[in-house]
Amino acid sequence: MENITKIWLGPLPEDSPYVKPFRMYYVQNGVEKNWDLLKVHDSVAIVLFNTTRQKLVLVRQFRPAVYHGVIASEEGGFDKVDLKAFPPSIGVTLELCAGIVDKSMSWQEIAREEVLEECGYDVPVERIEQVMVYRSGVGSSGAKQAMYYCEVTDADKAHGGGGVDDELIEVVELSLEEAKRMVQQGAVNNSPPSCLMGLMWFFANKAPPSA
Predict the structure, then answer these.
(1) Between the CA of residue 173 and those of 23, 47, 198, what are the distances in Å?
(2) pLDDT higher than 80, residue 16
(3) Is the pLDDT of residue 43 over 70?
(4) Integer Cα distance of 76 and 2 in angstroms
């Protein structure tokens, strides 16, 4: 995952299937304004709890945007990257199982597919429970994300997970105590808000009484 030997930036191709930048103009209170936006895919995220092991199942992966964000914050630029000073590990995140909505399937079916591809659990769609729907990236994309919850067991394990095609995803099992530490006051995480919100929702609504 962290075997990255070269990093550089380039212009965004106009035919990118994932990101399309544009500027929106509008008049508010009689004043003409504009805002730079990104059109991105909507997405799903799934809080997974293995009841056999009493573990929360997350995924670990390298996120170029996080790596760029860390360097841009510390260095103020991204010209020449010193991989010794800024190892790829700083761009590795811990997240909920998730995926973009880019298929002609129900969102629950897409969530089920992501659980199988990324984490290796084969569960019927009826066990994918919707938690909430909200907007992510409200300052740049406003994309919709639906969060789901699914309880799995060791018997549901079909394979080791890890994603498809050229994805490099590591399945991570967290004890309830480890997950709690991620959302305690003062915690510092390389995790997106949806992951932390999902963990807090789990502890408020689904965690075993002893947790």
Answers:
(1) 41, 12, 15
(2) yes
(3) yes
(4) 23
State the Cα angle at 185 between 183 and 191, rounded to 5°: 40
102, two tokens: 């880019």
Calpha distance 108→86 (Å, rounded): 38
Cα separation, 108 vs 82, in Å, equals 42
Confidence check: pLDDT of 77 > 80: no
Structure tokens that stand for 51 in this block: 């009841």
Cβ burial, residue 148 (10 Å; 0-12/13-18/19+)? buried
Cβ contact 113:105 at 8 Å = yes
User: How many whole angstroms separate alpha carbon 153 and alpha carbon 124?
Assistant: 13
Distance CA 102, CA 90 (A): 29
CB atoms within 10 A of CB 106: 12
- Report the helix count and the strand count for the chain, using DSSP H and E: 4, 9
